[in-house]
């Protein structure tokens, strides 16, 4: 199956709407296959980590996305429906699952298998409020290094944004109240008629803004931490289903879509 890397010119990130003019370039990524669900940039290795859902696979790529540097297999997952990944620094990553769990784990520079069983001392499980509907749980997780804060987005029914401070310890926290999870604003009200679902988030520490992605609406939205809308951007309609996003080293936005499509906005 062919994938596409779409190179786009981002005209504005600060106005009420930001537009993109896209030129598509097709490229095959056979190692990913399908079910591409999330992406994060590792600023220490200068590479990208892409995650699949329903498989437990993570792929590391350099910026040209020519071929994987390695494939990392996650084993002993309680919930194999992994939806997103975010790099935290020091070889640590956070992974969100459909059952509204966020796992923090370490992957060193050479590992090709990582055991994520929740009984391991080097894996931290954080439980968010359970989803109200089956298969409508967490889709994205992101982290603000500036504020030491996690954000996670629930897909729909209802759409929810969760916020909590990263714990100072690595112990499991199986209760959302003990974790200190809160909802910083009324997500359904703000996104009404703008985004019909949520599929990913990233935090922009430079501008102190939260970016949200919708696959059903093919749209990215920028908000302040308090929920004030800064701008929206409609994405190219070539991919079928946008599922994850991250920033490049120089601040460009990368969005990934099922089955295995990468969109670079610059």
Note down, in words, how this protein is organized.
The chain is mainly beta and 266 residues long. It has helices at residues 176-179, 187-191; strands at residues 3-10, 20-27, 36-42, 47-52, 57-61, 70-75, 82-89, 92-97, 101-106, 113-115, 124-127, 138-144, 149-154, 160-165, 200-204, 209-214, 219-224, 229-234, 241-247, 253-258, 261-265. It has a five-stranded mixed β-sheet, with no helix packed on it. The protein has a five-stranded mixed β-sheet with strand order 3-4-5-6-10, with no helix packed on it. It is globular.
Give the topology, please:
Layout: E1 3-10, E2 20-27, E3 36-42, E4 47-52, E5 57-61, E6 70-75, E7 82-89, E8 92-97, E9 101-106, E10 113-115, E11 124-127, E12 138-144, E13 149-154, E14 160-165, H1 176-179, H2 187-191, E15 200-204, E16 209-214, E17 219-224, E18 229-234, E19 241-247, E20 253-258, E21 261-265
Parallel strand pairs: 1-21, 6-10
Antiparallel strand pairs: 1-2, 3-4, 4-5, 5-6, 7-8, 8-9, 9-11, 12-13, 13-14, 15-16, 16-17, 17-18, 19-20, 20-21
| Count of runs of 4 or more consecutive helical residues | 2
Summarize model confidence as the mean pLDDT.
87
Radius of gyration: 17 Å
The neighbouring-strand order within the major sheet is 2-1-21-20-19
Query: Could you say which overall geometry the principal axes of the C-alpha atoms support?
Result: globular
H/E element order:
EEEEEEEEEEEEEEHHEEEEEEE
Work out the number of β strands.
21
Q: Give the oligomeric state of the chains in this entry, treating copies of one chain as homo and distinct chains as hetero.
A: single chain
**Biggest sheet statistics:** 5 strands, mixed
Strand % is over 45%
- The N- to C-terminal Cα distance equals 26 Å
Report the helical percentage.
Answer: under 10%
Poorly predicted runs of 5 or more residues = 1-17, 19-26
What class do helices, strands and sheet pairing give? mainly beta
């Amino acid at each position: 199956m062919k994938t596409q890397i779409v190179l786009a010119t981002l005209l504005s990130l600060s106005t009420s709407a930001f537009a993109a003019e896209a030129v598509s370039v097709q490229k095959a990524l056979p190692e990913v296959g399908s079910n591409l669900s999330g992406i994060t940039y590792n600023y220490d290795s200068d590479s990208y980590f892409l995650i699949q859902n329903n498989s437990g696979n993570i792929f590391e790529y350099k910026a040209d996305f020519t071929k994987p540097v390695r494939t990392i297999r996650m084993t002993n997952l309680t919930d194999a429906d992994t939806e997103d990944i975010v790099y935290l620094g020091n070889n640590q990553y956070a992974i969100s699952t459909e059952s509204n769990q966020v796992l923090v784990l370490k992957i060193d520079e050479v590992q090709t298998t990582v055991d994520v069983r929740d009984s391991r001392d080097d894996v931290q499980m954080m439980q968010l409020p359970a989803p109200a509907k089956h298969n409508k749980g967490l889709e994205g997780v992101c982290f603000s290094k500036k504020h030491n804060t996690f954000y996670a987005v629930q897909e729909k029914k209802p759409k929810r944004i969760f916020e909590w401070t990263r714990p100072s310890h690595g112990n499991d926290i199986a209760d959302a109240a003990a974790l200190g999870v809160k909802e910083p604003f009324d997500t359904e009200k703000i996104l009404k008629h703008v985004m019909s679902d949520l599929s990913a988030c990233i935090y922009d520490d430079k501008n102190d803004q939260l970016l949200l992605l919708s696959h059903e609406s093919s749209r990215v939205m920028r908000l302040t931490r308090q929920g004030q809308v800064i701008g929206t951007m409609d994405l190219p309609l070539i991919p079928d289903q946008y599922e994850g996003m991250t920033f490049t080293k120089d601040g460009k936005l990368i969005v990934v879509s099922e089955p295995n499509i990468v969109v670079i906005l610059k």
